[in-house]
Every structure is written in C-alpha cells, then in structure tokens.
Amino acid sequence: MPGRGEPMFKEQADNTLMLRKSGRPDAMYFALGRLVAAALVHASYGGVALPVVFNDCLLKYIVGQPIAAVDVRRRDPIFFKNRMEALLEPGGIETMCAALLEDRLVFESDSGVPLVAGGNQKQVTPDNVREYVELLSEDYLCGAVRVELSHFLSGFHCVVPKEILNRCGITFADLGMLLSGVSELSAAEWRRSAVERAAGVSEEAARRVAGWFWEVLEGCPQEE
C-alpha cells in the first residue's frame, strides 16, 4: 500500500519533531492531530508526558501564534543571516535584488507562490519589508507541509479547540511543556516558587528541615 509505514514527522536540527510530507492519506494526519490532542488532555490530568519534543513552529500553529523570522534563525541560521537579516539592513532590498538577478522583489515565495493575495504584483519596499520577511519566514518553515499541517490542526482542534487554549492563556511554550514535560528540573527554581509551612513543629525547625531537603535535592543528578 503506497505510503504505508512512512513517518509523518521529521526530526529537525534541534532534535524536535515537525510534520513532513508522506504518501499517507490526509485522514492519517487528521488522526495524528487527534492523538496528540488526546495526549494533551491526558497530561493535563497528571498523565505521563510524551517522550518526544515538538517543533516550536508546530506548537505555534496549534495555539495560533504567528511564525516569525526568529524561528528561521533557530532552524537555519545561515539562511536567516543571508536572506532575512540581509534584507533588513540598509539597502538590503537592492542588494537582494542583485543577488537574485531580479529587477524587484515581490511578495512571492522562492517557488513563485504568492505570499498574500496579489503578491506577484505587490513590490517589497522599505515600508513593508518586515511584513515580507515574516511571511517569507512562515512559508520557508511550513509551506512544504501546508496541506498536512491543515489536516493535523483540524484533528487536534476537533479534540481541543483553539479557543479553549487561548482562553486559558496557553502559549506555544506552555503547550510544549504540557505535552513533553521539561528536559531538566531546576531545584533552585523549584525552591524559589515553593511555599514552606510548618506542620506540627516550630517555624525554626521547619526551616531547618526544608534547608536539608533543598541541599539534598540540589545535589541529586537529573536522572534521579
């Protein structure tokens, strides 16, 4: 069967997972979205987090946060420097036109797909170059899997609507921690946010015992 057994995720340079094209039917991406959403519901009730880390771009799409040039820098710092950063420098548009052998830049992707309605007629200028960079960033990171991403999101939001995520104030970083947990537990940060209360002993004794606890915890390796 065509596409059977093909992975639907691809590991990125930062060891996170992003959707990829495959020969699998669209319904499989829809089902995958539902599965990840079910894992989120399970984790929110104290269940075990998933043993994988999802790419920031995928998490941003789930909660509805925009993709930015900084996301390109994380994934491909060379492309970011030579394309995004270069465009934003004084005279960057003219320099890029010369490098690409173009008379002008318009709101199109590198493959000629309009980034906005009528993008092939909308010229990049100093006034709108930042908008162009943001749109180009989104297309560079997600354009190749736009169809798969659409079905994945439909499946996810069928179980956990985006409106609920937004109402709860969940950011893409929060979502990542809910789904995958944290790679390291900071004892110092835990201590700063902890509230110590005496229970059947004096305040002084409670502080002394708590101090011993934090000393032991801070000396433990992460795997323990």
UniProtKB/TrEMBL annotation:
Biological process (GO), any one: protein ubiquitination
Family matches, as SMART domains: HECTc (SM00119)
One GO location term (cellular component): cytoplasm
PROSITE patterns: HECT (PS50237)
GO molecular function: ubiquitin protein ligase activity
Enzyme class: transferase
UniProt pathway annotation: Protein modification; protein ubiquitination
Protein keywords: Transferase, Ubl conjugation pathway
EC number: 2.3.2.26
InterPro entries, per database record: E3_ubiq-protein_ligase (IPR050409), HECT_dom (IPR000569), Hect_E3_ubiquitin_ligase (IPR035983)
Sequence ranges assigned to domain HECT in this UniProt record: 1-224
Catalytic reactions of this protein: S-ubiquitinyl-[E2 ubiquitin-conjugating enzyme]-L-cysteine + [acceptor protein]-L-lysine = [E2 ubiquitin-conjugating enzyme]-L-cysteine + N(6)-ubiquitinyl-[acceptor protein]-L-lysine
Domain of life: Eukaryota
Official protein name in the record: HECT-type E3 ubiquitin transferase
Organism this protein belongs to: Alexandrium catenella
Lineage start: Eukaryota, Sar, Alveolata, Dinophyceae, Gonyaulacales
